[in-house]
Amino acid sequence: MTDFEGLKALVTGGASGIGRATAELLAERGAQVAVLDLDPSCVEKPLLGFRADVTDDTSVRAAVAGAAEALGGLDVLVNNAGIGAQGTVEDNDDDEWRRVFDVNVLGMVRTARAALPHLRRSAHAAIVNTCSIAATAGLPQRALYSATKGAVHSLTLAMAADHIREGVRVNCVNPGTADTPWIGRLLDRASDPAAERAALEARQPAGRLVSAAEVAGAIAYLASPLSGATTGTSLAVDGGMQGL
Ligand code: NAD
């Protein structure tokens, strides 16, 4: 496949999980890839690592500029860095709401703002935001997290409308429960992680978790000219959870 040959991509949260699988897949298929993360020290060649915190506009601007310079431009931004939050509206105080929105929503706004001047110069510009089925599923014990992903969903639609005339497509993927270090950390908190994992898998229509590679495949599709006429869409990668 040559659809990624020559594409220059920046993946936020690319040091772990879905972001890492995406960065590796794009690079395997011929793209030049940079990763922006809090700690990109585990990232290996040919990926380029840039340290930044998406809550810090100065560090985001420096990392995006550094990536664009090192790659010779930017065609693709994968806005993927994100954190979780559990509980109902009574469980998280205002500071926690601000903290999670700062990462999950404003983090994507900051990277997009820094990347758009570079993307506008590309003939194949695409932004892919990692959203979640939580955006629309009404999951229990996920009020804050779901609200951030609902905002990412709306942001994707609004950005798609704003930037298509400049040649920049904007889409999102909606993973279900994906088998990444994030889920591993959640399971490790249970008294019996293996039993908890089995119960989690049993709740999935497909009988298993979604893999990071499967989410990466959907992101890669939306990032590539293969989806050249697609903008403002959300692609579920959830093993059938959306249909429940
Ligand atoms: P992960 O914890 O494995 O990876 C997240 C990465 O983001 C890490 O490398 C982390 O360092 C980075 N990151 C976090 N905060 C950051 C910040 N302030 N600045 C820069 N980088 C930061 O998690 P994952 O499961 O791969 O999740 C990736 C994305 O997928 C998130 O947006 C998450 O909401 C979304 N998602 C995950 C699942 C799931 O079940 N794993 C389901 C739906 C959506």
Could you characterize the architecture of this molecule?
- It comes from Streptomyces fuscichromogenes.
- InterPro entries: NAD(P)-bd_dom_sf, Sc_DH/Rdtase_CS, SDR_DHRS6-like, SDR_fam.
- This is Oxidoreductase.
- The chain has 244 residues and is an alpha/beta fold.
- It has a single domain, classed as Rossmann fold (3-Layer(aba) Sandwich), CATH 3.40.50.
- It contains eight helices and nine strands.
- It has helices at 17-28, 57-71, 94-119, 134-137, 143-163, 181-188, 193-202, 212-223; strands at 8-12, 32-37, 48-51, 76-79, 125-130, 168-175, 178-179, 210-211, 234-237.
- The strands form two sheets. Strands 3-2-1-4-5-6-9 form a seven-stranded parallel beta sheet, with helices on both faces.
- Strand 1, helix 1 and strand 2 (32-37) form a beta-alpha-beta unit.
- Helix 1 (17-28) crosses helix 8 (212-223).
- The longest helix is centred in the middle third of the chain and has 26 residues, at 94-119.
- It is globular.
- The protein starts with 7 loop residues before the first strand and ends in a 7-residue tail after the last strand.
